[in-house]
Design a protein that fits this description.
125 residues, alpha/beta, four-stranded parallel β-sheet, 5 helices, 4 strands, 37% helix
Length: 125
């Protein structure tokens, strides 16, 4: 069973908050063993990054936490590879549901949670 988010947060050597992953190579170069990486909002670009790098991050004991907002998940269709979270939130709150294309699906999130170093946190307001 995975340890709680609080345990992980208390035992991480450093914290790095990531809102969007636009340059995966740059992010990987900044991480050290024992870091905690927080992925805000479950953007599809973060899914791609984690799917490709989760095992390498686990080998370095780097914990990855993704924060999920209820009712903000892509249901189907073609995802946007990169998006600015704040802009997507504004669009969603004004009724533009096309902004959902920037987010992960629930199945993609479940897939990431199969990695031993990926954890789920709820996104708060």
């Amino acid at each position: 069973m995975k340890k709680s988010f609080m345990y992980i947060a208390q035992h991480a050597s450093r914290k790095l908050v990531v809102h969007q992953v636009l340059d995966a190579k740059s992010l990987m170069s900044k991480l050290s063993a024992g870091d905690l990486v927080f992925f805000d909002d479950c953007l599809y670009s973060q899914y791609l990054f984690l799917k490709e790098n989760a095992e390498e991050l686990a080998q370095k004991s780097i914990a990855c936490v993704v924060s999920f907002s209820t009712k903000i998940a892509r249901k189907d269709g073609c995802p946007l590879l990169y998006a600015i979270c704040a802009e997507c939130h504004d669009k969603l709150h004004s009724g533009d549901m096309s902004a959902l294309q920037a987010y992960m699906t629930v199945d993609e999130l479940k897939e990431l949670l199969c990695f031993s170093n990926v954890y789920l946190a709820c996104h708060g307001a």
